[in-house]
Design brief:
six-stranded mixed β-sheet; binds adenosine-5'-triphosphate; globular; 606 residues; 3 domains
């Protein structure tokens, strides 16, 4: 939420200073806090927009750990952090030596390296669960299961749990307090030093200051257009759709904003807290510069080959902040596959953002694609020519079709083909129905699949047959709407189904797969995959990598990943460290050299 880092963790709960700083340390947030101008009182934007993906994940973990619950359900808590931080969090939070050591911890994970530490491994496949009990490398869950054996833990073996509780592990007998007083040394002692407790007052922009700023820049009509639009559509939406606020500015000049819209806006939006978030977005849009630069248009087949060059590139997110990128110089050749790795906060995503000019802060130096400095182009012109799967993929409000093809460039068949390739077609419509609409991917036997709609239609027909005159009239009214669109083939197969921005029908992995569908349909010469497979299981990750290799063999692909398997087959690896390139070269060479990359590989093997 749009508040200080501390408020984001406390969530209105009492401030227990001692425990709070222990949580900060355990969740490896100390160094981040120290690097921010207002320490833990630094404002975090809505949905954590001004912190890195890893920082967001650790903040969410800290919020949960601060709740001091008896039972914790942690949904893939380590997917967005590097191997060192993963180890630190395991030791200081999740394992029995950590802050949650005395609680029951149910952890969902794609990280197989975590499995040896668990008492029970529950595998979920095709909606069936199988449970494996084992002797953990370190006692994680068992002690707590027996201590709170009233738990609704679906624990199939209480005896086993009790047995485990008697294991001779001193850490198990310690209270949380004792554990904390004697923290287990992390594998990497530098992962998070002791916290600094400096408290500074945050700088806050009032709504009025925000509004004045936008008024001064763009005047009344533009202001209202901007706010109405920005309130409804996220930044990424604009980017992906190829729209831009500058285009709206043009509309506003031609006086397209009706008074009704203005009044409606004033009533509904202006006085709501959400508006300040919209205003933040507006500032970003305005700072992006023109949508189209008439005397420097991007050619239609651009970029022709996909050569990417970073020249003396430095980036800061604010005058009083450290450089997030420092004097980067590197040439990426056409068609090269580059893996970008590095500790959390090293600058990987910032590097990706510079290629899309998503940063309006202090950017020095340049990014050139096929010899063109991208700063010269209008953002609306060059962005749609590049492809990205961002760290957090989004589904937009609208139909599945609009999500896949916001600019109406492709046929329905293209969309199904992409969804089938990426393995998400079944999420939208079962194979049986697709087949009846002529869009099945193979001849696999699907006769056993039950078609609920057909069963329902039959039941409706039977009801109709039995009904008298009056009842038929009533049924006619009730069923008319239901069957109105029954003849629409595409309606029947669900691509016109509405999905929402925060639609929980889609897992984060599935959202990433939908982003991959968009890329496959567009076939851009330069692609950025920012933790594009972090949320999917290893097998799907492997399939996605294979698909990326075959579909984009001619393209330049920059892949950011903490999971090293994902980038091991890259032509070259860039290891980022504190905003700089610490190492660059083919993966096997870097491993043989025994430097930073070799260290990361080793850390990943724990
Ligand atoms: N919008 C922002 N405003 C201020 N600082 C930011 C912003 N985004 C990132 N930073 C800071 O810039 C640095 C680099 O962040 P970046 O997101 O590039 O790291 P990363 O290597 O991608 O990390 P992760 O692996 O955690 O995703 C971090 O210190 C982060 O706190």
């Amino acid at each position: 939420m749009n508040d200080t880092m501390r408020a984001n963790i406390l969530l209105g709960r009492t401030f227990d200073e001692e425990y709070y700083w222990k949580v900060i340390h355990a969740c490896a947030l100390t160094q981040d806090i120290e690097s921010w101008p207002d320490g833990d009182l630094t404002m975090i934007g809505e949905r954590g927009i001004n912190i890195s993906g890893g920082q967001r994940a650790r903040l969410a973990l800290a919020r949960t750990v601060y709740s001091r619950a008896d039972v914790y359900i942690l949904d893939d808590p380590l997917s967005a952090v590097d191997a060192h931080v993963k180890r630190h969090i395991l030791d200081n939070v999740i394992l029995s030596s950590g802050l949650l050591g005395n609680s029951l911890r149910v952890v969902t994970t794609h990280a197989e390296s975590m499995l040896p530490f668990c008492n029970q491994i529950v595998t979920v496949s095709d909606r069936t669960m199988s449970v494996v009990h084992q002797e953990p490398k370190e006692h994680v869950v068992a002690t707590t299961i027996s201590a709170s054996d009233n738990s609704a833990t679906c624990d199939a073996t209480p005896d086993k749990a009790k047995a485990d509780s008697t294991h001779d592990d001193p850490a198990d007998d310690n209270s949380i307090k004792t554990d904390i007083e004697k923290p287990t040394p992390a594998a990497d002692a530098t992962a998070d030093p002791e916290p600094a407790k400096e408290k500074k007052q945050p700088k806050k922009w009032t709504l009025w200051e925000n509004a004045k700023y936008v008024f001064n820049i763009c005047g009344w009509h533009v202001f209202t257009t901007l706010v109405i639009t920005a309130s409804f559509r996220p930044v990424s939406d604009f980017i992906l759709d190829g729209y831009n606020i500058a285009a709206l500015k043009e509309n506003a000049k031609s006086d397209t904003v009706s008074h009704d819209a203005v009044l409606w806006y004033l009533k509904v939006r202006l006085f709501k807290a959400a508006t300040s978030v919209a205003l933040d977005k507006i500032e970003e849009f305005i700072a992006e510069g023109p949508y189209i630069v008439e005397d420097c248009r991007v050619p239609s087949q651009w970029p022709p080959s996909g050569n990417v060059e970073f020249k003396d590139l430095s980036v800061k997110y604010g005058a009083d902040l450290d450089y997030a990128l420092k004097n980067l110089n590197v040439v990426i050749r056409p068609g090269e596959k580059i893996g970008i790795v590095g500790r959390t906060g090293a600058g990987k995503s910032t590097l990706a953002k510079t290629i899309f000019r998503l940063l309006n802060e202090d950017v020095e130096g340049s990014v050139e694609i096929d010899g063109h400095n991208i700063a010269k182009f209008g953002v609306g012109d060059f962005r749609p020519k590049l492809g990205i799967i961002p760290q957090e993929s989004t589904m937009f409000n609208g139909t599945v079709k609009r999500n896949l093809d916001p600019l109406n460039e492709f046929t329905i068949e293209d969309m199904w083909a992409a969804m089938i390739k990426c393995g998400v077609a079944d999420v939208i419509e079962p194979k049986r129905k697709r087949k009846s609409a002529g869009i099945a991917d193979d001849d696999e036997d699907i006769d056993g699949e039950e078609d609920n709609d057909e069963v329902k239609i039959k039941a409706d027909e039977e009801r109709w047959e039995k009904a008298g005159f009056l009842m038929r009239a009533l049924l006619f009214l009730l069923l008319k709407k239901k069957y109105k669109k029954a003849n629409d083939k595409h309606q029947k197969i669900g691509i016109n189904r509405n999905v929402g921005q925060d639609d929980n029908r889609f897992s984060s992995g599935q959202r990433q797969l939908f982003s991959l569908c968009r890329l496959i349909m567009r076939k851009r010469k330069v692609l950025i995959l920012d933790e594009a497979t972090a949320e999917v299981d290893l097998e799907t990750d492997g399939k996605m990598q294979e698909l990326i290799r075959s579909e984009f063999s001619e393209c330049t692909v920059l892949t950011i990943a903490h999971r090293l398997d994902t980038i091991m087959s890259s032509d070259r690896i860039i290891v980022m460290e504190k905003g700089e390139i610490a190492e660059i070269g083919p993966p096997q060479e870097l491993i043989a050299k025994g430097g930073k990359f070799a260290e990361l590989v080793k850390a990943n093997e724990f």
